């Protein structure tokens, strides 16, 4: 009881199984329990591919935006200043990094941020990316070149188009290319696809990138502002070198007609300007509109008197979906800046160009040097540089892991945890050849789980189509995001009052777990 200024007594109206100091202590215990759970997990091994040590001139590492010589090799004093800042973490040391132009490094200090829910970024790990001189790296850059050459091929035409047929034949010749295959060979049906459940089934593009999305009283029309076909960037050496030295070229050339995603160029442009969790929030809206059933473990499925809302209901799922994205970004930014510092495909392509023109003798695996993809690019552009879909090329942060792919892995894992993955999507569609309309798709059934996995791989590989990421960046970052989301869900479960056996989901490796 307490009294007002006039002396009137007020009754304490708080109810619940725990109130006041008892509740505060319970909240503290849950937070401590979650923190101790994360702290007591085994510390991961943060191994790298050793390129940074193996090549003193740093040809195997990211350096875009720093000053470079005429070969595009970074000036070592600038690279050392960047490494000093990453080592000390002192904000003033980041301000001392020499920059060559107006393009600035993207948020390296995010790698040092802490997290209050979910795993600490330093407690997550990724396997080392392919090494500079490896056969795997040769296969990955070959795929990037073929993606660039096939940007304007409609996904439905891959089986018959001569470029994609050549791509499948050429990639099959690489000894360590790790894309999906049939009887040991890449086929037009497996070309540019991710080896995750659902990705090989049906259209290349996920239904969640095509279907209209009811957004409250509004509807999101999925036709997008795309760019004109046939326009690529950084195919001249002087342009490539200027961009490595921090130059920012002019804007894209836009198609005046909105279109549905139909090819790699459209997909690359979609992931050029998206809000980072946009694809998955839109997928959530579509799932709500389809009345897709919740996961069987949701206790409100069978409640006689309640529905979920602030917990385990639609508003809750929407907020958790967005909340996990920032945890995913912190995790992958640590990998980018503090562990791997993998060079971007555009940087590696510059090494290939200088090797083949005789300007330098880099230890590049011979399988890429005889690839038909290089012949195709040289015939079109008279250089061996990787044609970029974006005028500015890649963003100014290292390649591995991939931010888009890590967020994709995290957000899709959340959706798979809360929805019934086996639900079949009714009335699936596919883009017309001109991208102006959607037409019915009547092939194999498409499930929620499969199309969510496909959505994640579409977003990840859309960046590869643009020329700014590698296959391993996408695949391994999906796994990193998945692990972030699983940790996040474990802690979320600790906070809930409902009796909950757990969230059941299928991982990207095909195994089913209950969190």
Can you offer a commentary on this structure?
- The chain is mainly alpha-helical and 515 residues long.
- It has a single domain (41-514), classed as Vanadium-containing Chloroperoxidase, domain 2 (Orthogonal Bundle).
- Helices cover 41% and strands 4% of the residues.
- The protein contains 16 helices and eight strands.
- The chain has helices at residues 20-39, 51-54, 76-88, 91-94, 135-149, 162-172, 237-244, 264-273, 278-289, 314-340, 345-356, 366-369, 372-381, 403-418, 448-465, 471-495, and strands spanning 2-3, 9-10, 213-215, 218-220, 429-431, 438-440, 504-506, 512-514.
- The strands form four sheets. Strands 1-2 form a two-stranded antiparallel sheet. Strands 3-4 form a two-stranded antiparallel sheet.
- Helix 8 crosses helix 15, helix 10 (314-340) packs antiparallel against helix 14 (403-418) and helix 15 packs across helix 16 (471-495).
- The longest helix has 27 residues, at 314-340.
Tell me the CATH architecture. Orthogonal Bundle
- Name the overall outline: globular
So, the CATH homologous superfamily? Vanadium-containing Chloroperoxidase, domain 2
CATH class: Mainly Alpha
Could you give a short account of the major beta sheet?
2 strands, antiparallel
Please give the oligomerization state of what you see. single chain
Order the strands across the largest sheet as they lie in space: 1-2
Q: What string gives the helices and strands in order? A: EEHHHHHHEEHHHHHHHHEEHHEE
**Uncertain residue ranges:** none
Number of DSSP E strands: 8
Q: Assign the CATH topology.
A: Vanadium-containing Chloroperoxidase, domain 2
Summed over residues and divided by their number, the pLDDT gives a mean of: 96
Distance between the termini: 43 Å
How would you classify the helix and strand content by structural class? mainly alpha
How many helical stretches?
16
The helical percent reads 40-55%
Provide the number of structural domains. Answer: 1
Query: Beta fraction of the residues?
Result: under 5%
Radius of gyration: 25 Å
């Amino acid at each position: 009881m307490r009294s007002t200024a006039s002396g009137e007594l007020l009754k304490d109206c708080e109810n619940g199984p725990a109130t006041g100091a008892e509740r505060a202590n319970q909240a503290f215990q849950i937070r401590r329990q979650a923190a101790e759970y994360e702290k007591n997990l085994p510390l991961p091994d943060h191994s790298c591919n050793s390129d940074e040590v193996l090549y003193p001139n740093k040809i195997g590492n990211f350096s875009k935006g720093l000053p470079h010589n005429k070969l595009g090799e970074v000036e070592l004093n600038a690279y050392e200043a960047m490494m000093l800042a990453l080592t000390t973490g002192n904000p003033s040391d980041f301000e001392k990094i020499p920059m060559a132009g107006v393009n600035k490094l993207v948020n390296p200090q995010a790698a040092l941020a802490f997290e209050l829910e979910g795993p600490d970024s330093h407690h997550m790990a990724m396997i080392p990316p392919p090494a500079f001189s490896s056969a795997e790296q040769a296969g990955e850059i070959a795929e990037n070149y073929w993606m660039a050459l096939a940007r304007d091929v409609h996904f439905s035409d891959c089986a018959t188009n001569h470029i994609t047929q050549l791509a499948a034949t050429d990639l099959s010749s690489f000894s360590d290319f790790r894309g999906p295959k049939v009887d040991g060979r890449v086929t037009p049906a497996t070309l540019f696809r991710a080896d995750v459940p659902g990705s090989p089934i049906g259209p290349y593009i996920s239904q969640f990138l095509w279907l209209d999305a009811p957004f409250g009283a509004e509807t999101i029309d999925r036709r997008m502002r795309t760019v004109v076909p046939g326009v690529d960037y950084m195919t001249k050496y002087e342009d490539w070198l200027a961009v490595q030295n921090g130059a920012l070229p002019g804007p894209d050339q836009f198609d005046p007609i909105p279109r549905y995603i139909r090819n790699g160029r459209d997909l690359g442009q979609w992931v050029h300007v998206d809000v980072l969790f946009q694809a998955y929030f839109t997928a959530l809206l579509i799932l709500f509109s389809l009345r897709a059933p919740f996961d069987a473990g949701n206790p409100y499925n069978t409640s006689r008197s309640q529905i979920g809302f602030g917990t385990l209901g639609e508003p809750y799922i929407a907020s958790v979906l967005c909340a996990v994205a920032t945890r995913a970004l912190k995790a992958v930014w640590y990998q980018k800046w503090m562990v791997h510092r993998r060079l971007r495909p555009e940087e590696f392509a510059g090494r290939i160009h200088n090797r083949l023109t005789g300007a330098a003798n880099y230890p590049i695996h011979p399988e890429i040097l005889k690839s038909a993809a290089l012949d195709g690019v040289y015939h079109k552009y008279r250089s061996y540089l990787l044609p970029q879909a974006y005028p500015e090329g890649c963003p100014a942060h290292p390649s591995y892991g991939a931010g888009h792919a890590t967020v994709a892995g995290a957000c899709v894992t959340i959706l798979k945890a809360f929805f019934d993955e086996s639900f079949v999507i009714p009335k699936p569609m596919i883009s017309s050849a001109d991208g102006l309309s959607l037409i019915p798709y009547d092939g194999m059934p498409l499930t929620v789980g499969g199309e969510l996995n496909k959505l994640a791989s579409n977003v990840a590989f859309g960046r590869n189509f643009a020329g700014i990421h590698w296959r391993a960046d996408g695949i391994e970052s999906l796994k990193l995001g998945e692990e972030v989301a699983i940790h996040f869900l474990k802690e979320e479960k600790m906070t809930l009052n409902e009796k909950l056996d757990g969230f059941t989901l299928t991982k990207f490796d095909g195994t089913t777990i209950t969190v």
